[in-house]
Amino acid sequence: MVRKLDPVFLQGIAKQAGMPVSLLPLSSPEVPARMLLEAEETGGYANYRVEGGQIAGFVLLKEINGIPIAAMKFLLPRQIYEQGRRTLTLFVALFAFFSVCVIGIVLLLLDRMVLSRLYRLSAEVQAISASEDLSRRVTVDGRDELAVLKEKINHFLAALEKSTGKLKAANQELQDFAYVVSHDLKAPLRGISTLAGWISTDHRGSLDEDAQEKLDLLLVRVRRMNDLIDGILKYSRVGRSREEMVPVDCNSLVSETVDLLAPGENFTITVQENLPTLVADRTKLGEVFMNLISNAIKYIDKPHGIIRIGCERDGKGWKFHVSDNGPGIEEKYHEKVFQIFQTLGPRDTPGSTGVGLAVVKKIVEQMGGEIWIESAAGAGTTFFFTIPFRLSEAELH
Prior knowledge:
5-stranded mixed beta sheet
């Protein structure tokens, strides 16, 4: 049978089939090893994918006695597969192109309808905040949720403007009250003090001991009343006046404060050498150190007083401390000492009005910090206060 399948005959078959045809012995490497088994199961043929995007079909040829002797190979291009692959590639490319177009259009619409309006809103709010002019309003455009938000911002600004107006009026009333206290109350006190001083001087020899003690007590009470009025005025002014924020060398400030207080030779005051330079209101920061150091000097009950002043970094700010070896403060009084007019000493102690620590607390909190006490009876007292980090002197310049 093989002898009849000469090249001319095979060419005729290939022409009729419209595909390449070749006759291969079963031992040819082009014939898959499993072809015989599969061809027996399928009735004498088998199909396989080969390189080049083609399908190879094999027909098993047998002798008359049924013994396989050769295989006829047909090569068929995988046209459907290739066409499908090209179609899929084109579809993916078109899908990617249209996806990019859709995303671009959505982003453009989002920018024009939302993002650009949000940017303008943010700029307007920042401008109002920078100018501190609460009479200004943001521009309302459109009828969507963003427009509703803008209207609510305007309502909030209107309410804030109204509240600020009331606060300014209250501050003006407080200033007027401070003037009345300073002028109308201190004037009679000065008169009483002057008259009591004249009587004490002119009649010191003619007054008995009891009368002289009462007259001296009157002078003490007048001075205390005068100090209380000064304390009220000082407390009311905290936060109402805006001083220039300047670099403050804390070592220099503490040194000046100690020199002003002139504690005496029976005191040892140790100041940490590397205190920071802060950008702050120098007057108010100086008042904090003045009150804390003078308090320590005033209440130390030892023959030799020891006061230490230092600072360290603590989280988001500087933590200062002023410690002494005085009598200490019981824990139940740790909050009370910061309340105005509260003092742990005798009422008639010179300079003890109960206002100083209240002023210190108000100043520290206005700076964004905190103040507290660590102390126990008989173990000395340490006042701690924090000041948030500000620009260093180099950064300011």
